[in-house]
# Entry
Amino acid sequence: MVTTKHEQIIQHIISLDVGHKISVRQIAKQLNVSDGTAYRAIKDAENQGLVSTIERVGTIRIERKKKENFEKLTFAEVVNIIDGQVLGGSNGLHKTLSKFVIGAMQLEAMMRYTEAGSLLIVGNRIKAHELALNEGAAVLITGGFDTEGHIKKLADDKELPIISTSYDTFTVAAMINRAIYDQLIKKEIIFVGDIATTLEETSYLKTKDTVGKWYELNEKSGHSRFPIVDEKLRVIGMVSSKDIVGKDKNIPIDRVMSKKPLVVKSKTSLASVSHTMVWEGIEVVPVVDNSGILKGVVSRQDVLKALQQIQRQPQVGETIDDIVSRNLQFSADEEVYTTEVIPQMTNQLGTLSNGVFTALMTEASSRLLQKDRKADITIENITVYFNKPVQIESILTIKPTVLDAGRLYAKIDVEVFSENKLVGKGLIMAQLIHR
# Structure
């Protein structure tokens, strides 16, 4: 298969040692491509987490993180997060930090917590800079201060970055912590590729197979829906039990299959594929690559199991939806949900934000359906009326009522009260995912 110039550059970057410096001109010359092509490929490599670009330092090859190590940042990423300036040790920017230590203590106490692979966040304390580097830790100097020449040389010799930022110590710690949380939140998002069966585990039929082959696979796997592939393993159709009912077992399978089937890719989110399955009423969806070649399948059972696992995950970094969910309490006596309006739920005026208002209605409705119907929901349509502003520290009472519910959908009316006064209403149309 012919690879493009862009793909060749990406492969070249992957082959470079971690810590190697990269430039547009160097790539263009080595691979005989234009500066524009080299620039676009380097930017793509940065998006893929292969390189990091730092002002006044350049672009360096960094180690692409494994899925389980998202919470670790490289020193190069720290520089970009805190708008830092690298004073020395730039050859170590590709390394990851295991923890950071705030140096707001006596020198001896500080060194007890400072270990190899950590990052010491400290002000203009030259002795602390030196001791940290000798312990194998990188240094982040706050307040915009510089350091002495022999410290910079020590950083270069040990290949441990020493970085300066204009922010204060605690602001910097908060920024790094937020970046780690942001990555942990992203880590929680499950993609189809994380739960799908592999090609080796997947049952499929070829265009030359007969209806009889469907019966064989059905008996062997217990499934009733299979992808149909051509000689290059590209998905061209799907066949299910309703397609073969009453058909002669010797008929070629491509004469009874459904053409142009729905497919998903490995990077399709779990939420998206669950919506597709419910909306279309299908049990199994083929997983394909960019060329349409079969890579596996994902079933409704796989999706439901993953959704339930997500709900049991421990909290790591909170989104607004997490905050809404955590603070929503069920009152069994009155069959309502209550919550307090905390600062994170408000807008710049100090009143409940419209987005959080909507999230509260959605979460209460979801819990009601989980309790009464043993079903999860995906929202299809929501109409919200905001009657009056809700102040910070107000106690809200949310009352969802199922107006109508079938096998695949539900219509829910939601009323929101504060101090017994109606402050908002909503009408939700949702698809049901039965457990």
